[in-house]
Amino acid sequence: MTLEFETLLIPTDGSERAEDAARRGFDLVAALEADVAVCSVADSSIATGTGYSGDSESIRTRLRGRATDRATRLRDEADDRGLEAEAVVREGIPATEILDVADELGVDGIVIGTSGRGGVARALIGSVADRVLRRADVPVVTITADAATHSPAETGFEDILLPTDGSDAATAAHDAAFTLASRLEATLHALAVVDSRVTATLEAITDEDPERALRDRADATLESVASDARGRGLEVLTATETGRPASAICEYASDEAVDLIVMGTAGRGGVERALVGSVADRVVRTAPVPVVTVRPAAGASE
């Protein structure tokens, strides 16, 4: 499936964090010269919650009114920025409705704010953003609070980071990264990280140099990615680091002033929790810039 990124969906619940993320999403929409649909969902569970004894239809009406206000306000902001925008309002379970709207409109990606590290660094888990990430058939752009708060001078997308280890999950993100780099006329940074925990384990059981072997394998993977990217006319830089993958990815993004990270996830597997606890999960929660996550066969039926 070829990813085009012609239309993006941006949900909002009216919170400051969600609206900051939406505005950062508008930066990406503008850079891509794409269209945007702003979606707000009146959460039906509020009106039908167990033990509520009031007028649920009255509550639904108020919730729909607030959702409409949220969507139209952000739609108007997008219009003021010269973007082609529409407002969409739904009633139901937020994550489900967001995904249904994405399918109905045929969008190429969803942009959503995350709750970041809060609590025990698991605020994302179980949230609307988490459910969208695990179930979306299109790439999802997650934006942390840090990633949302850039000054106007820092809203460009000139450098894109593509972490890869050659796995199927990582490779699923290559086409998205290439497309974005081409559309944004950005430099692509292909990064491989040799996991220091793996090398430490192997060093304890072998007389060989496992780090050297792993770095050689990583370099070969990067050369293949770089060759494919250059074949598409892209400017490419490659780097191999050693450390804990998620930390190394975020540190590279900060050190090299990267504007966007594009990476694959392991998809829905197991109990739809493959993302949780993974490298992608940690990067999504801690990245200083927006992160585009792509599931294998994104957009295809399972």
From TrEMBL:
Domain of life, per lineage: Archaea
Pfam family, one: Usp
UspA domain span: 5-142, 157-295
InterPro entries linked: Rossmann-like_a/b/a_fold (IPR014729), Universal_stress_UspA (IPR006015), UspA (IPR006016)
Family, similarity comment: Belongs to the universal stress protein A family.
Protein name per Swiss-Prot or TrEMBL: Stress response protein
Lineage: Archaea, Methanobacteriati, Methanobacteriota, Stenosarchaea group, Halobacteria
